[in-house]
Amino acid sequence: MAPHHWRPRSGAPRALAGALALCLAGCAVVMDNQPRNRPWAPAQADGRVASTTSALPQAGPLADETVVALSFSGGGARAAAFALGALHGLDTAPAGNGRSLLAHVGFITSVSGGSMTAAWVGLHGTGALDEFRRVALLRDSEQGLRASLLNPVNLLRLAAGGLNDRSTFQRWLDDEVFHGATFAQMSQPGRPVVWINATNLRQRIAFPFHQRAFDALCSDLASYPVAEAVAASMAVPLVFAPVVLEKHPEQCGGPLPDWVDSYSLAFGETMLAQSLLTALHDFRDTRTGRYVKLVDGGLTDNFGLTSIQQSRLLMGTPHAPFSEADALRVRRLLFLVVDGGRRPAVDWNRGVDGPGGLDLALAAIDAAIDTNVRLSYDSFLPMVRRWQDDVIRWRCALPAAVQQQQRDQRAHWRCDDVQFGITRIGFDDLGPQRAAALHAVSTRLSLPAADVDALIAAGREAVGANWQVRLFSQLLAAGG
Q1: Each residue of 253-267: pLDDT tens digit?
Q2: What is the DSSP annotation of 455-470?
Q3: Are 418 and 392 in contact (CB under 8 A)?
């Protein structure tokens, strides 16, 4: 699950009420959550007026014709460690020419805890995985977090939007893990493309951090801190205040193009498309407010797959989110969903009474998240098959001269030689007893070293045990 199940500490309600009354009379809380996204510079705006509403992302360019795409789920440090283990597992799977499947990782979409691992790989590539364990997973990231509801000022913070703002976990991420890095440093050649996903509270849809989404805000992603995006992806409501972005419509130099409304008519029966188009209009309209509020991405989709479906809807090309060049180049794609979520662990169903108020609220949140993630994954399976078929049809409909040019560059190229697959790994792949122990690990932000290492080992073994990963590895090792 994406939410980290924090519980207020016990105390005397009357004393708390009295202290709160005194504080309300003379206390003020200032939240550190000012937006840090910059508007386009004039030169950027002049060059992008025509493309500001391409809306959602385009992954690429791909390094080669074989791609391993990854989805890292939410679930606090537990999900981050399991994702790290999956990367280690890919590094043990041969892919021919002395390379492993890890060398073919070209794209990662992530949510909540998984976003820490994804952002690290986006910044450092796949060659610094052990350093991530030391820097992020074995450190006490919860030090300084506000959790006690016995502190009246914390209740004021809660009422103002969340117990914790930028001054706690977010600052730790920026200072200790990502060291002030921006998205410009995540756009280096040879590193996977990374989409970090949060939830747009107003439209209640996924908000992926990539330039096309920032284009819709007339804002510059390159200068935006990576830690801010990861914090937004992990911003469990009430535990953390929302991360705020600012709209800069005055920088776009014009209204939305006509295709937006015509697209709306064409997809009038698609509720997701309607929500996305409403968001596009909202990003340009300060009458609805100047700010976009983002919280935990797991609330919309704990696998981070929805943003890919959104891009296919809005970009409207057969190969989206691939560019034309990538769609011509791609030959084999394996999409691996790394699920660090956990199954329900409750005991209030053993009697008539319960769950209590807090347990009921947490169970309701978990129920919504689990329902969304099932629907997201189940709809993603046929979407991947349609995506493959659409790419094949598009390639085979290209002019003969274009196809011949591709064969001249790569003798084995065929327009219909495209295979996309999807698979998922999770704790339940490792046997009942092992799975029960892993499901019991907390979804907190900081875990004991023994739990971290158990989760890393579990991710590595789950990848090795997955038959689709093994088949993909064998196909590539054999030169297929």
Answers
A1: 766 766 566 655 455
A2: HHHHHHHHHHH-HHHH
A3: yes
Q: What is the DSSP string of 81-97?
A: HHHHHHHHHHHTSB-ST
Closest CA to 341 of 379, 383, 374: 374
Specify the long-range contacts of residues 27-31, CB closer than 8 Å, at least 24 apart: 27/152, 27/153, 27/156, 28/156, 29/153, 29/156, 29/157, 29/160, 31/157, 31/160, 31/161, 31/162, 31/165, 31/241
Cα within 13 Å of Cα(128), Cβ side: 16
Residue whose entry in the numeric block shows the structure tokens 């409909």:
397
Identify whether the C-beta of residue 42 lies closer than 8 Å to the C-beta of residue 78: no
pLDDT in tens, 95-147: 988 899 999 999 999 999 999 999 999 999 998 999 999 999 999 988 888 88
Which residues 6+ apart lie within 8 Å of 435 measured at CB?
427, 428, 429
- Pair 69, 334: CB distance under 8 Å: yes
Q: Which of 95, 136, 122, 4 is nearest to 476 (CA)?
A: 95
Quick check: 380 and 301 in contact, CB under 8 A? no
Round to whole Å and give the CA distance between 434 and 467: 19
Say if residue 290's pLDDT is above 60. Answer: yes
Cα separation, 458 vs 470, in Å, equals 16
DSSP 3-state of 147: coil
Is the CA virtual torsion 373, 447, 118, 277 positive or negative? Answer: positive
Helix (H) or strand (E) holding 245: strand 243-246
67 touches 107 (CB < 8 A):
yes
Report the pLDDT value the prediction gives residue 62, as an integer from 0 to 100. 59
CA-CA-CA-CA torsion for 304, 306, 307, 309, nearest 10 degrees?
Answer: 140
Alpha helices in 249-305 (DSSP H): 259-266, 271-283
CA quadruple 224, 229, 232, 234: dihedral, nearest 10:
-160
d(CA 329, CA 357): 54
Selection from 417, 401, 393, 387 nearest residue 322 by Cα: 387
The residue assigned the tokens 């597992």 is 89
Asked if the bond preceding 3 is cis, omega within 30° of 0, the reply is no
The residue with tokens 């207020």 is 8
Q: Tell me which amino acid residue 421 is.
A: G
- Measured CA to CA in angstroms, residue 471 lies from 44, 64, 210 at distances of 45, 19, 32
Q: How does 360-388 read in b/e, with b if 16+ C-beta sit within 10 Å?
A: eebeebbeebeebbeebbeebeebbeebb
**How far apart, in whole angstroms, are the C-alpha atoms of residue 171 and residue 385?**
42
Q: Is the peptide bond before 448 cis (omega within 30 degrees of 0)?
A: no
